[in-house]
């Protein structure tokens, strides 16, 4: 907490310990969502709990994502449709996986934990946002090792278009 407004925190409050590479965070209302390698957690009314001096409750929204640590970071965000968008990177630098969860962006219903494929062929998304017209825009980090099957290294812009109400579509 930055009580005196000088840009430096005087107090640090731990929300949770013992997580597996927590890195993606997003708020929806008063709830904090934290993405780990293989799951997404919800901390309901997190700020109220911390202000009251209590440890916030922890709920598992889903634990259905792969457990691979390679490209396992999940930069999450809520879309204009109220769903939580969760990327899953490829399991290695230079491969193609038969598991459709990899190299994809999924959208997750935060109430039920049910996920559906939103965009595929997105090897290792490291953030994304929405165009004002509703189109998701995501950088795609190409393979670190060039391959005729996957492509040369570099950064490309991948656009996955969806109506945000209808069926997911590929990049």
Topology at a glance:
Elements: E1 24-28, E2 31-35, E3 40-43, H1 46-51, E4 59-62, E5 77-78, E6 84-88, E7 104-108, E8 115-120, E9 129-130, E10 136-141, E11 155-160
Antiparallel strand pairs: 1-2, 2-3, 3-4, 5-6, 6-7, 7-8, 9-10, 10-11
Descriptive overview:
The protein is mainly β. Helices cover 4% and strands 29% of the residues. The chain has one helix and eleven strands, in the order E-E-E-H-E-E-E-E-E-E-E-E. The protein has one helix spanning 46-51, and strands at 24-28, 31-35, 40-43, 59-62, 77-78, 84-88, 104-108, 115-120, 129-130, 136-141, 155-160. Strands 1-2-3-4 form a four-stranded antiparallel sheet, with no helix packed on it. The chain has a four-stranded antiparallel sheet with strand order 5-6-7-8, with no helix packed on it. Strand 2 and strand 3 form a beta hairpin. The radius of gyration is 17 Å and the shape is globular. The termini are far apart.
């Amino acid at each position: 907490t930055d009580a005196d407004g000088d840009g430096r925190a005087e107090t640090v409050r731990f929300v949770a310990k013992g997580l597996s590479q927590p890195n993606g965070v997003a708020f929806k209302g008063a709830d904090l969502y934290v993405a780990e390698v293989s799951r997404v957690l919800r901390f309901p009314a997190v700020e109220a709990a911390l202000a009251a001096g209590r440890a916030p409750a922890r709920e598992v929204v889903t634990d259905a994502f792969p457990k691979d640590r390679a490209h396992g970071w999940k930069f999450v965000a809520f879309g204009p449709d109220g769903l939580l968008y969760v990327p899953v990177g490829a399991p290695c630098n230079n491969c193609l996986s038969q598991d459709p969860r990899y190299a994809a962006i999924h959208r997750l219903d935060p109430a039920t934990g049910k996920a559906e494929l939103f965009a595929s062929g997105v090897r290792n998304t490291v953030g994304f946002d929405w165009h004002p017209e509703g189109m998701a825009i995501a950088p795609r980090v190409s393979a670190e090792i060039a391959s005729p099957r996957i492509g040369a290294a570099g950064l490309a812009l991948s656009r996955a278009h969806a109506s945000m109400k209808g069926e997911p579509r590929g990049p």
